[in-house]
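Postdoc handover notes: sequence design on the structure in folder B. Input tokens:
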């Protein structure tokens, strides 16, 4: 059997090397190198929960190794009590400490879940920047509705400014994630999800789709830039100088360009108003989710059928073009009418 001291000498260099790699590569692990308040709060929560759980795990590991060594067969000096079966003191310790830790974790999780709710606007005296994000095959389209510009695979925003993201999909489900800034949230066709973030440092932060969505998924990434106010205004002027206009026709062409490689950054100097709501509505048709607030009216120009056809190229997804042929009299049904018919139990599903 290998002596404990010898085993320790063998393991020590490996442990030190692992620690060194972790410390030097912290920036590569984005969630452990946050650049915004939301990311920092989530990092604190992650570390706190891990430490609390290690209060049980580490002593158990130490005692397991210690008892195995102390009561080994070759140690004739150790106490030998084959009839021992119970200790009240041990039972109290092994049950009370985990119960207290679970209680603390429960309170911590409850409070942080509400404090870090992605739908909750951030408290700030600075006017937020609203960005409408649409996931396509396989690229991200970002619309700045207040600035009336749009960009593919790039976003810029002022530092220390709240970001109000409105997110949807023109294809299958994806997940919007900027690890340095915080929370991840899904993008889904016919639905709008929300996310509130902030960057407290200037810098260049990678963003991605963290949910597999098809052949070009690996190239579905973008860059988020946190810049000064002056640099942000300069960038907006550069985007506005672009000759391309984002309207329904150019949006359809963009969606049909199903890129296998990374799609280059593209600027649209002008955008058609209400395009984000139109994308949601064209997939919605008459299929209302019970309990959800529906502010997006279904388009009357047959766009619903076009939107459903976009899914046909995805493995496992069938076309839904026949949804456009549903009886028109159902279009006026609201979520409240469905709830009154016995679906009240779904009332919180869309918030």
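Designed sequence:
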């Amino acid at each position: 059997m290998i002596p404990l001291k010898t085993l320790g000498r063998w393991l020590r260099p490996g442990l030190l090397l692992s620690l060194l790699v972790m410390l030097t590569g912290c920036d590569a692990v984005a969630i452990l190198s946050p650049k915004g308040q939301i990311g920092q709060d989530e990092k604190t929560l992650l570390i706190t929960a891990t430490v609390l759980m290690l209060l049980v795990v580490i002593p158990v590991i130490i005692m397991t190794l210690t008892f195995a060594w102390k009561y080994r067969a070759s140690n004739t000096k150790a106490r030998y009590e084959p009839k021992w079966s119970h200790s009240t003191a041990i039972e109290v310790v092994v049950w009370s400490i985990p119960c207290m830790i679970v209680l603390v974790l429960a309170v911590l999780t409850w409070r942080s879940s509400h404090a870090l709710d992605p739908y909750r606007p951030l408290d700030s005296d600075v006017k937020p920047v609203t960005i409408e994000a649409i996931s396509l095959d396989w690229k991200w389209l970002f619309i700045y509705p207040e600035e009336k510009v749009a960009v593919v695979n790039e976003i810029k925003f002022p530092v220390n400014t709240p970001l109000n993201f409105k997110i949807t999909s023109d294809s299958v489900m994806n997940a919007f994630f900027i690890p340095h800034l915080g929370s991840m949230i899904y993008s889904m066709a016919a639905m709008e999800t929300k996310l509130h973030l902030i960057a407290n440092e200037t810098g260049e932060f990678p963003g991605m789709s963290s949910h597999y969505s098809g052949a070009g998924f690996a190239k579905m990434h973008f860059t988020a830039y946190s810049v000064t106010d002056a640099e942000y205004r300069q960038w907006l002027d550069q985007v506005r100088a672009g000759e391309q206009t984002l309207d329904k026709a150019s949006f359809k062409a963009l969606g049909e360009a199903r890129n296998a490689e990374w799609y280059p950054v593209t600027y649209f100097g002008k955008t058609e108003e209400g395009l984000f709501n139109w994308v949601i509505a064209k997939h919605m048709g008459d299929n209302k989710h019970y309990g959800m607030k529906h502010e997006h009216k279904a388009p009357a120009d047959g766009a619903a059928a076009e939107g459903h056809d976009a899914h046909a190229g995805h493995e496992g997804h069938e076309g839904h073009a026949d949804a456009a042929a549903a009886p028109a009299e159902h279009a006026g049904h609201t979520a409240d009418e469905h709830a009154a018919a016995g679906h009240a139990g779904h009332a919180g599903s869309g918030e």
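Context for whoever picks this up: The longest strand covers residues 129-136. Don't rerun without checking with the PI first.
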